[in-house]
Specification:
It comes from Streptomyces spongiae. This protein is of the alpha/beta class. The protein contains ten helices and eight strands.
C-alpha cells in the first residue's frame, strides 16, 4: 500500500476519525462524579483537557488523583464510554478522504491511545480498515503520552520515512508525539482541544479533516 517513501498520514482515532465527543464528555463526568467534581461542559473540557490525563484531573481538583482514585475513575470512564460509543460515528467525510489519499498512491495508518483490543474491531466495523497499513491502539496502562507508542508504530511500518510522515490528531500530545519521531503534525479543532489551546503548540491548526489532509499533503511534499 503506497509507494516507498511516499507521504504517510498517521491518524488519531478518538475525536479525529471517530467523532465521539459526547461519549467522552459523558464518560469523563461519570468518572468525575466519583470525586464529587461538578460536571463539565464540552467547552470547559476542551479548554482544560491535557495529557497525561491525571494532569487534567489535577487542573480541576488542585491535586493529582491517588493511585486508587485513578484506577476507580479510569474503570468508570471506560465502562461508560463502552456503553455510549455505539451512538457515535465517523467524522463527516472520512471514508472519502481515506479512499482518495490511498488512491493517490500514499499510505496511512492509525495510532490511538484507545485500547488496542477494542480499537481494531471498532475500525473494522466501519469498513475502513483496508485503507490502513496498520492499526495500533494502546497497550499497557492508560493515561500516558503517545510519544513512545509513536516510536514503535513508525518502526513497524515498512518504507515509511519520518520526514514524510504527518500526524493528524485533535490533541497537543499528537504534535508532541510527531516531534518525538521527527514527523510533522496537523491539529484538528473538532475533538478534545479548543482552537486556542491548540494554536500555542506551533503546528498548523484546522477546522475540518479535509483541510487537515490538504495541509498534510503540503507538509509532506
Amino acid at each position: 500500500m503506497g509507494k516507498h517513501g511516499a507521504a504517510h498520514i498517521v491518524w488519531d482515532w478518538n475525536g479525529t476519525l471517530f467523532h465521539d465527543n459526547e461519549a467522552i464528555i459523558g464518560a469523563t463526568n461519570a468518572a468525575f462524579a466519583e470525586l464529587g467534581i461538578e460536571p463539565l461542559t464540552l467547552e470547559r473540557y476542551r479548554a482544560l483537557y491535557c495529557v497525561p490525563v491525571p494532569k487534567f484531573y489535577e487542573r480541576l481538583i488542585g491535586r493529582l488523583p491517588t493511585d486508587e482514585e485513578w484506577e476507580i475513575m479510569d474503570e468508570i470512564f471506560h465502562r461508560y464510554y463502552l456503553e455510549h460509543r455505539t451512538a457515535c460515528g465517523l467524522t463527516e467525510g472520512v471514508p472519502t478522504l481515506l479512499a482518495n489519499w490511498q488512491s493517490a498512491g500514499r499510505s496511512q495508518s492509525i495510532l490511538s491511545m484507545y485500547g488496542h483490543e477494542e480499537l481494531v474491531p471498532l475500525v473494522r466495523g466501519f469498513g475502513i480498515e483496508p485503507h490502513f497499513m496498520r492499526v495500533d491502539g494502546r497497550t499497557g496502562p492508560s493515561g500516558g503520552s503517545k510519544a513512545e507508542h509513536m516510536v514503535r508504530h513508525l518502526g513497524s511500518l515498512t518504507g515509511v520515512e519520518p520526514a514524510r510522515v504527518v500526524v493528524i490528531g485533535d490533541a497537543a500530545d499528537d504534535a508532541v508525539a510527531a516531534r518525538h519521531v521527527g514527523a510533522r503534525a496537523v491539529l484538528y479543532t473538532g475533538g478534545s482541544h479548543s482552537r486556542a489551546s491548540l494554536e500555542v503548540v506551533g503546528v498548523p491548526v484546522v477546522d475540518t479533516l479535509e483541510e487537515a489532509v490538504a495541509e498534510a499533503e503540503r507538509l509532506a511534499a
